[in-house]
Design brief:
By secondary structure, the protein is mainly alpha-helical. It has 17 helices and three strands. The protein has a three-stranded antiparallel beta sheet with strand order 2-1-3, covered by helices on one side. The longest helix has about 55 residues.
Length: about 400
């Protein structure tokens, strides 16, 4: 399964290799693997006589991000539609790139294309930047003689996918930032403020209210075991994230949990459906066969639940089941998506109907993100008011009691 493969590749590195093919021609490329021996063995199975293998070390510049690939795709599509030759287009984009790593990447791809390698094969040598979906669409464009149109589709797909992810991130930044600040404030209060009040209260010589005693006890535990508390929080968080990355069962369980969360679960589900329908629409519209297109759709959805469902759909479709029926059997697609898919199958415009479904869910995500900002603000303020306000009131109760006695 694709998720399991991704988990196994966590510790892999990118290795640059050089060798000779069966015809004695010098070939170069890169592979993601766990060691040089594995790279050599894999290349030997492909009929390549390896002469040099080394781990790639990147110097200078920041890492290549999805935004860089989206901008590159848009620039390449625009120049090719304008009639600029492919190699010249690569030269122009590489010279205009501000990131040295991106410049090196484009130069390597241009060199491969110049020596007779097809563009899709040149892209496949860089799996960290160009995934299977990207390479499959480029290959379909080369075979069908419609590379310019496919690059345009890819550019639109990359831009919409990136915009969707940015909307989800923007919805999560505010609550996460507020909670982090609240944790820092509570830590300062527990470590420094409450112990100062404790020294003042010790001179009163009177019984303290129960809420004050409870807060002071919590402060004492925090001061005595702060190292253990922080160790459990950060250590537990680290091990949780590592197990999440490496365990397929953990990924499926967490993705199921995310889909069931109040408010955020609906947002995540709609964003996953938008990516799923957008990816399948792009692949199918490019002329990629349905069964083959489904290979890339599950991973592009970004959710293990829908990836498992896509695997099931692919198996059923390959045996002759209609796509709508296969989707309905998974039980994870809403009625609107099923109906639009059915209409697309009947009318022969599946890519168009899936594209309309993607646009609908992208608009829904946009509206939900706008609403979440106004919804989360009073909710978070209420929680912080109860926590910090409760602590403040608890520490001032003895002062109020003393004032009443006087």
């Amino acid at each position: 399964m694709a998720t399991a493969a991704a988990v196994r590749d966590v510790k892999d590195f990118i290795y640059e290799w050089e060798g000779k093919d069966k015809n004695g021609k010098v070939v170069r490329g890169e592979l993601r693997s766990g060691g040089e021996a594995q790279v050599s063995a894999q290349l030997r199975r492909q009929g390549v006589l390896v002469t040099k293998v080394k781990k790639r070390r990147m110097r200078g510049g920041s890492s290549i991000k999805q935004k860089d690939i989206a901008v590159f795709t848009r620039q390449l599509a625009t120049m090719m539609k304008a009639g600029v030759p492919l190699l010249q287009a690569f030269d122009i984009v590489a010279r205009g790139a501000s990131n040295p790593r991106l410049t090196k990447l484009l130069t390597d791809i241009r060199t491969d294309v110049e020596t007779g390698t097809s563009l899709s094969v040149a892209f496949r040598k860089h799996p960290m930047q160009f995934n299977a979906l990207y390479c499959n669409l480029v290959e379909a464009g080369e075979q069908g003689g419609i590379l310019e149109q496919l690059l345009e589709r890819l550019a639109i797909y990359e831009e919409k996918t990136m915009a969707l992810k940015q909307k989800i991130k923007s919805a999560l930044v505010y609550p996460v930032a507020v909670l982090v600040v609240a944790f820092i404030v509570l830590t300062i209060i527990m470590l420094f403020v409450i112990p100062a009040f404790k020294e003042v209260f010790s001179s009163f010589g009177a019984d303290l209210p129960a809420p004050t005693l409870a807060v002071m006890w919590l402060s004492e535990q925090f001061v005595a075991y702060w190292w253990l508390i922080f160790g459990v929080i950060f250590g537990g968080g680290y091990f949780f994230m590592q197990s999440w990355k490496r365990s397929e069962k953990m990924q499926v369980a967490m993705d199921r949990l995310f889909l069931r969360l109040p408010v955020f679960g609906d947002l995540i589900r709609k964003s996953v459906l938008a990516r799923w329908t957008r990816t399948l629409s792009t692949m199918f519209g490019a002329g990629v066969p349905l069964v083959e297109a489904l290979d890339s759709v599950g991973g592009a959805s970004g959710n293990a639940v829908y990836q498992i469902a896509t695997d099931q759909i692919q198996k059923e479709v390959s045996t002759g089941t209609a796509l709508t029926m296969a989707m309905q059997n998974t039980g994870v697609f809403p009625t609107m998506v099923l109906q639009m898919t059915a209409i697309g199958e009947e009318s022969g415009s599946l890519d168009h109907m899936l594209g309309k479904a993607a646009e609908f869910y992208e608009d829904e995500v946009d509206e939900m993100v706008k609403g979440l900002s106004s919804l989360m603000e009073p909710f978070i303020i209420s929680i912080l008011g109860v926590l910090i306000g409760g602590i403040v009131v608890s520490m001032y109760l003895p002062i109020f009691k003393l004032g009443a006695v006087v």
